[in-house]
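Re: your question from the hallway

Yes, I did run it. Sequences:
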Amino acid sequence: MSSLSRRNFMKLGMAGGALLAAGEGLKGSALAGSMKLQMGGRDFSPETGSERKAIPTACWSCVTRCAAMGFVEDGRLVKMESNPASIRTEGKMCSKGQSGINDVYFPDRILYPMKRAGERGEGKWKRISWDDALTELSGRMKKLRDDGHPEKFMFHYGRMKASSSKLIKSVFLKGYGTKTIGGHTSICEGGKWTAHELTWGGHYDNWDFDKTDFVLNFGSNVFETHTNHIPTSHRLIRAMVERGVRLVTFDVRLSNTAAKSNEWVPIKPGTDCAVILAMCNVVLNKGLYKGKGEAFMKFVKATENHNASVADKIAALKKHCANYTPAWASRISGVSASKIESLAVEFGKAKTACLVSYRGTAAHYNGNEAERACKMLASLTGNIDNPGGRCKAVGAGWKYPHLPKSSKAPVTKGLNVTNGHPDKGHPQHSAFPSHGMCQSVLKMIKSGHAGRPEIYMWYCYNPVYVNGENDENREIMKTIPYLVTSNIVYDESSKLADLILPDATYLERYDWEDMVDPNQIGEHYIRQALVKPLGESEDLGDTCIKLAERMGFPLGVKSKKEFVQKSCDTTPGVKEAGGFAYMQKHGVWHPPDKKPYYYRYKNVIPASATKKDGVIYDEVTGVYWNWKKSKAKSEAEAKKKGYSHTGNAAKAYVGQKIGDTVYEVFKPDKIPKSGYLELYSMLMKEKGFNPLPTWMEAPEHKTMGPDDLIMTTYKVAVHIHSRSAHRKWASEIYHDNPGWINTKTAAARGISDGDRIKVKSRISEIVTTARVTEKIVPGIIAISYHVGREESGRYGSGKKSPMGHDNDPDLKNMWWNTHGQHPNFIIPNTPDPVNGQQAWMDTVVTVTKA
Amino acid sequence: MAKKEELSRRDLLKAGGSVAVAAAATGLMPAETEAAKGNPRYAMVIDLRRCIGCRGCTVACKSENGSALGRFNAVVKNVEFGDYPDTQKHFLPRLCNHCAGEADKGVPPCVEKCPENARGKRMKLGKERYRTGATYKRPDGMILYDMQYCIGCYKCIEACPYGVRSIDPFVKLKREDREKDLGIAKCTFCDHRVDKGVTPSCVNTCQGGARIFGDLNDPGSEVSKLNKEFNLEKKRESTTLLPGEKTMPHVFYIDPHKILARYKIEKETKEKEFMDVFE
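Structure:
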């Protein structure tokens, strides 16, 4: 053995006598203490040791869109890291960012334009040229436009942000003339945004973990999945470990966030609102509003009278919350009254406290009221837009090339299918669908009363699978005359298309980005192509430029890259720093001297602004507004209708009169509320709701029988909602989603761990596996979304896509053969009646052994 | 070996009374052998307070090294216990422990059992000379491997009590005397990055800052400060995995909830346990 080895050693040609140094970095500097390792920004091949090419870019796995760094070796993208220069990420990245590379190289990726060659959904495809694809699509689109019916082209997107949204929505679709544009926000967190628009105006809240002393979390899985995940989560864990900040999490399930919290408070689904209202009751009755809460109440509307004194406001809220006692909330939520009381006191007494809420709270029938109740609790304790509190988010502002005047659409129209049903009382109706009602779009198309699109195009979205009622979605889709998508993955929806365009992945394209900065400063950053798009794939932005050209309304830029370049070269600050060239080199920029933005509501509007031409005072609300910026045709009409009831009035807002001063306060966004932070909403009252945050129980929950359970859904750390099953490194870690059920709940049904179970709702049923666990409240079953895919390639579904290839050497190493069960088949598409948010977490089901 | 043992005894005495007392009390020998020689002694401290279970490290490692499906060099394990509503879930990041090995042996079991552990190049690190092999210990404490010398006997896989070594389907052995066709792989502490002055990939990505890498021979390093603050080396029983194996790991845990004591690695399932999969 020994001699053999020695012989081989000689054969291998090793120069026995040579002394080699281990690693060039250690040459002459190997002494202990002499090495200072740099955190990141550089990477090397483990094979050859050669440095990989580093290119700054931005992630697109989740909506957080972290500034990132891509590393390229021999023309192949091999590694993603964060951009160490980013003030948002501070050089950190999550597993979703890391697995993004799989988007480029997964073996079932769509790389060429494909035309349907069989029945819809049959899976027969013919590869066609880009020229043929563009000729066909632009021909169909141009006909609708020329016929004066651009609205019959519907565009429905899942994720478009920043420059991808501006180029496609604000330039291309504007030039085309369709207003039939749907988003996906109502199946995400749109209801939370509407509640923000009703209370403090512009949506999005930033949680100031760097400066807070206490975090009270209702239903946010901030450590796994939040919409501003890395920027917030790494700051929260740092605050906890380094400053001893306490985190208390209310959740139905022991999520990773609940697990890392100082306290996990299990709660019955859909009852967060009751607990938050009871906390307001405690704060009011114990006088914990005194001090900063009372001072803040000056800027809050809590009664019908906009001139009410702070004492009147406190009295009105006290009266409103009188019956919302901890004992009352305890009966509803299952949380003990003493726990509610002690946490309310802790929150009220903390120097600064941050109130966190997300989909666990918002994606319910009563989500709007839960979110408004959050605003009440944060207001009463003075924890709004202050260091350490719940702050108005700050992002980056960009300039961008607009649609050339010569390309203006001759006709602009829209089908009213994106905001639910207009009739009050209809199951698909909501009062303020300010972020659309994605989940009812197909039902609206089916009903046809608002018209039907001829062409339905979707992007970064999977309409069949990501809404509830998957079977119905599929059937309705099939009735639409022409279906087209731009996609990287052959999924349950692209399967139905007539034409599939091969989209470039986010790692092969250009964008400017603007997501919220937890520093309250704002960070500009860009995404740039790390590698040439694979096959014939192309960024939809570039495709739109070509389509517009063919239809005769050129967009004024020749490529998405040029769009981004011009944006960088014209945006103040970025321009002076060096524009596009600077951004390509560094990836990120923020104003170096800007101070964090807090207390914006205290800004005083100068008297001159209220005396400008067109500015009038609204007696009902106390708002100064410029009627000329609204849809009112005359001053008389504006005065007659009033600020709250004139179209576009929110955009005409100037300031709020409080006492003798006019303040900026909380500027309205989509909804024409007054400038106050409105706990009392006149607009809600007019729609028949209680003007103050109020407990509303989901109708389904009122009639639950003793065997019924509530089904909730959730996300896990390694997956994006529905766009990552094809990523091998994500699905290797998480590929099965058994239904979590409490030991006692399972025992009562004779269910053991690993049993096959039938989960039945009022619309349908699924069969899945039971995971009997102590990590969940009794009386519910929780099933995550991510997996249970019918398509999405071998790593996601076990099925090869029709366009899949076999050149990934890892295919033979794939070791899992379970792919989970998707829960959305049995979740009805039901909206929050106030804001249209899909009530994901309210479904009543029975669970039995299958 | 005898000479090395002598050396280490001398070094141990040099290192001061407190270490000697601690070592005597625990029966474990702190790996202070290289302390006076000038080379770094690399270690990782994993602060369990800071791990949020995001698996950034797991995937960053796969990407950095192009690891095959089914193979991991870094994982995070969920450690769960307690009855509802007092259920607890904790996260335990794991990787190769880069063990120093028992003092009298000077190398960990994987290196000891490797028949080709000194068949490689003659190298020098600082003032220390060493020789590479199929699997070997570098003077800075890194346990490395070089597949051109591997014969595919897999004795290292068997020898490692932690199950961190596994067969790599992407590495085809070429030696004529090979026993099996495929090579092995495991965590290298990202020597290819560290040697160029950059932290390991898992450390770079870790959002909680739970993974801290550095030189225990540098009193100013973060790992040395944490070592001092939490007595990591002195309390190996409670700061390292499988202390009973006496492998002298150089991966230490700050473990306020005593998770290590609850976490079991069984001989039969050690390789399967070193996978990152959750439901």
